[in-house]
Amino acid sequence: MTDLPPTTASLPARMGARWDTEGEEVRGYVDVLPELCHHGVVRVSVLAMLVDTAAGMAADLRAGEDWTFTADLSLRRVPVTVDRIETDPMVLREGGRGITVDVPLLDAAGRRIGAGVSTFSRLVRRDGDPPKVGFTDASEFEWPTPEAPLAELLAAHVVGDELELDLRPTVLNPAGVLQGGVAALLAELAAERRLEAATGARLVGTGMDIRYVNMGRIGPIRTHVEVIGGADSLSAQVRLIDTGQNDRVVTHNLIDLTAV
Question: Is there a cis peptide before residue 220, judged by omega within 30 degrees of 0?
Fold first, then answer.
């Protein structure tokens, strides 16, 4: 997710994750807009984007010239209605192979409303690798905003009981693969669609555990939802698979929801 291109009109740039930097200090935030919400509560995938963007910047600053890639992310939150969510990430562990970052989620008054943690693989740059591009000063550009709800902007279509997403340019990262925040949004939508239909309740996400397995390169990307528990369950496992790569798993997600 930390490959977010903020100066473009891409969907990732419209998912609300923002940042300020001062030296090696990072502050991430989301100004909560209606388009970023479901049933009036900011989407858990928006917070996953915030967690990984803020954590990724903190890890990248520690990694120097090494590459960093998101390996996994965990997030828990209470479904409160707030105008802004902020975070000051803190590196918990830094090693030769990985960096783990704690990402507290706070409202504008400093009250804890959630918690996130993300781990990054760290790879040494090799001779011949392209130059590493640093993060742009956020004061140098105007942030794009979503002109419609994120579910509409994603434009996934229904195939049987699942969702499917074509890999068009607006959902890709600069390397031409499915962007991590978009993957989180697709998984969240698939879980809430299945569980809202099963329970008849208005549901919002409260927890998300993401494991990044492979890159989504060809597509379409299809969801595979398995409900955890009985008919009234509010938890699901969601795998994203790349149907153009022999159904290779792209991400593995555990998602918890609650009624509002």
Answer: yes
Residue type, 194: R
Alpha-carbon torsion (57, 143, 29, 140), positive or negative: positive
In the chain, the domains with their CATH numbers are 12-125+149-259 (3.10.129.10)
> Cα(240)–Cα(84) distance, rounded to whole angstroms?
30
33-85 residue pLDDT tens: 999 999 999 999 999 999 999 999 899 888 887 888 899 999 999 999 999 99
Given a cut of 70, is residue 2 above it in pLDDT? no
The 3-class SS string of 115-152 reads EEEEEEEEECCCCCCCCCCCCCCHHHCCCCCCCCCHHH
Measured at the alpha carbon of residue 35, what is the angle toward residues 33 and 225, in degrees to the nearest 5?
A: 125
pLDDT at 127: 77
Query: For 199-217, how does the pLDDT look when each residue is reduced to its tens digit (9 = 90+)?
Result: 999 999 999 999 999 999 9
